[in-house]
């Protein structure tokens, strides 16, 4: 009867992963031990009795190891790691996923091959109180980090930012091999091209162009019809560039302050290095007050027609 009650307590606590191979002897007459009928039963102490506070006890909670009963693992892009009981193998966590520090899986799991679990400091959630405004609290999170951060050039001509990303890709591409431990030398690739815009006179407008290249690319802006690299001598146009957001990328902005109808036209972003060049363009429309009002009205009308023509009652699941 006592064994049945003890198992019920374990189920309620959701702490028993399986039937333990050894149960502690609990008795009302045992000194220092709580009675199962005691309403103030010390669940934490009970958990320690079952082995929750040390690795040896945890193995006892898992019961005898039977490898033949281990589930089959598939699609493990980061390899295999021991499960919480140390009997079976499970998929390792990928780069950026939460993990359990140490060599034992407790809640999040262990990092896969070539990864280590590191603490990451992040601002604590919630708004700070009056006394906490001067000192911002931080909370610690453990995540998987790749041990080899050097970029890899794959045989597919793709640059992988580290060896772990390369291994993930190679999992689904068995023919993929490492060409060299550096970025692939390539003609610039425009990752984020400038977008078409329509706005009113006097507004401030910004075009963005993000480029990946190795060797690093140089980015230039031009307006079609003018053989001048912007900004030229135009005081209300400026160009700024900086590295990022990722490695071997360059972000460039073209900004127009107090736009006028004469600024309307096609703007082109051109990136070039020693291997070649690539470009992308976007159209800018600067309208007067009446033209802008008419344009917005037509846009709203087209949106309503699109919504009416769309069958939102259709079941997509």
TrEMBL record:
Q: Name one GO molecular function term.
A: insulin-like growth factor binding
Concerning SUPFAM superfamilies, the annotation shows: Growth factor receptor domain, Immunoglobulin, Kazal-type serine protease inhibitors
* Superkingdom classification of source: Eukaryota
Query: Where does the protein end up?
Result: Secreted
User: What sequence ranges are listed for the domain Kazal-like?
Assistant: 138-186
Which residues belong to the signal peptide in this entry?
Answer: 1-18
Q: Any idea where the IGFBP N-terminal domain is?
A: 58-147
Offer a single GO CC term for the protein.
extracellular space
Extract the ranges annotated as region (Disordered). Answer: 120-139
Q: Name one GO biological process term.
A: regulation of cell growth
Question: Where does this protein have compositionally biased stretches of type Acidic residues?
Answer: 130-139
Q: Which UniProt keywords apply?
A: Disulfide bond, Immunoglobulin domain, Secreted, Signal
Protein's name in the database: Kazal-type serine peptidase inhibitor domain 3
């Amino acid at each position: 009867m006592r064994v049945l009650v003890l198992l019920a307590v374990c189920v309620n606590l959701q702490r028993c992963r399986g039937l333990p191979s050894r149960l502690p002897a609990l008795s009302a007459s045992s000194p220092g031990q709580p009675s199962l009928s005691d309403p103030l039963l010390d669940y934490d102490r009970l958990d320690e009795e079952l082995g929750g506070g040390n690795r040896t006890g945890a193995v006892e909670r898992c019961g005898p190891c039977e490898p033949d009963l281990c589930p089959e693992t598939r699609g493990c892009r980061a390899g295999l790691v021991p499960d919480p009981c140390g009997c079976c193998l499970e998929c390792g966590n990928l780069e950026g996923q939460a993990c359990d520090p140490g060599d034992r899986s407790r809640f999040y799991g262990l990092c896969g091959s070539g990864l280590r679990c590191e603490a990451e400091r992040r601002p604590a959630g919630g708004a700070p109180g009056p006394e906490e405004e001067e000192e911002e609290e931080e909370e610690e999170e453990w995540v998987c980090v790749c041990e080899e951060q050097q970029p890899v050039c794959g045989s597919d001509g793709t640059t992988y930012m580290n060896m772990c990303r390369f291994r993930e890709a190679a999992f689904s591409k068995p023919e993929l091999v490492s060409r060299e431990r550096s970025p692939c030398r390539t003609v610039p690739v425009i990752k984020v091209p400038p977008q078409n815009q329509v706005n009113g006179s006097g507004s401030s407008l910004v075009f963005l162009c993000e480029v990946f290249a190795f060797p690093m690319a140089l980015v230039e802006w031009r307006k079609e019809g003018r053989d001048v690299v912007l900004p030229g001598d135009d005081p209300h146009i400026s160009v700024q560039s900086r590295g990022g957001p990722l490695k071997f990328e360059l972000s460039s902005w073209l900004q127009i302050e107090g736009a006028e109808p004469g600024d309307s036209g096609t703007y082109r972003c051109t990136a070039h290095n020693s291997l070649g060049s690539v470009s992308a363009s976007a159209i800018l429309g600067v309208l007067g007050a009446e033209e802008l009002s008419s344009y917005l009205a037509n846009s709203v009308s087209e949106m309503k027609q699109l919504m009416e023509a769309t069958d939102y009652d259709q079941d997509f699941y």
